[in-house]
Amino acid sequence: MLTSTAIDDVRFSVTKFREGYEQAAVDAFLSEARAALAAWETGIPDGAPGLRAQDVPGWRFPPTKFGNGYDQDEVDDFLEKIAGALLGYEGGAAESAAAASAAFVVPAEDVAPASVVPAAVGLAKPAAPGPVLRSSALPDKRFSATRFREGYSQAGVDGFLVAARTALAEYERAGEPTLTSTDVVNVRFKPTKFRVGYSQDEVDTYLDEIVLAIRHHEAAGRD
């Protein structure tokens, strides 16, 4: 997980004759992000940090065209890491999983059509009976990496899995659920084309498993 000290060491490529992000604005945001992560790392001695995971994806920086700026793709990738780290800490809070479904949703025109649909419709055939996916299995899940074909943002997927693990753990101990099967069906991840991402098919298949697990708990709660 990204740490506050790692933010001090990050360096972005400088742009001059192509559009970048204003350096001062990015640097100011990184200072805020560093303070938020440091607060979590030290037990939040002064109260909850101001920056939350759900704030990061919508952050906007003034563009530069002819002056020095920071490479936009590099900054965007690093912001996803910051959001994932914050969401990891927020996973202990009751609202974190609900925030996750909003934190990594991007406008419909920016994403490929989602292949995650309600299990009764989205699965080619009924799933074979088997053990229900448990929260303890999620940290060990690995997906194939993509680079020259479209994948899903790794930070977005990782952050959502933290929220899904929290939600499943709540269901398992009969606590207050923080994520519903509908939330999982509706989640969208930022696509990657020329940067490393996760295999969309593998992620979609695993999300189907999470949907089935949550629906199992939802049905049990209605009995």
Describe how the helices and strands are arranged.
Layout: H1 4-9, E1 14-15, E2 20-22, H2 23-41, E3 63-64, E4 69-70, H3 72-90, H4 96-103, H5 119-122, E5 145-146, E6 151-152, H6 154-172, H7 181-186, E7 191-192, E8 197-198, H8 200-222
Antiparallel strand pairs: 1-4, 2-3, 2-4, 5-8, 6-7
Helix pairs in contact: 2-3, 3-6, 4-6, 6-8
Largest sheet: 4 strands, antiparallel
Quantity of strands, as a count: 8
Mean pLDDT: 79
Q: Detail the poorly predicted runs.
A: 93-128
Widest sheet: strand ordering: 1-4-2-3
Order of H and E elements = HEEHEEHHHEEHHEEH
The backbone outline, from C-alpha atoms, is globular
Roughly what fraction of the amino acids lie in strands?
5-15%
* Overall radius of gyration: 19 Å
Distance between the termini: 39 Å
> How many H/I helices?
8
Whole-number tally of structural domains: 2
Structural class: alpha+beta
Helical content band: 40-55%
The protein's oligomeric status is: single chain
Could you give a quick summary of the protein structure above?
The protein is α+β, with helices and mostly antiparallel strands and 223 residues long. Helices cover 47% and strands 8% of the residues.
Structure description:
The chain is α+β, with helices and mostly antiparallel strands. The protein has two domains: 1-90, no CATH class; 93-223, no CATH class. The chain is 47% helix and 8% strand. It contains eight helices and eight strands, in the order αββαββαααββααββα. The protein has helices at 4-9, 23-41, 72-90, 96-103, 119-122, 154-172, 181-186, 200-222, and strands at 14-15, 20-22, 63-64, 69-70, 145-146, 151-152, 191-192, 197-198. A four-stranded antiparallel β-sheet has the order 1-4-2-3. Helix 2 runs parallel beside helix 3 (72-90) and helix 4 packs antiparallel against helix 6 (154-172). The longest helix is centred in the C-terminal third of the chain and has 23 residues, at 200-222.
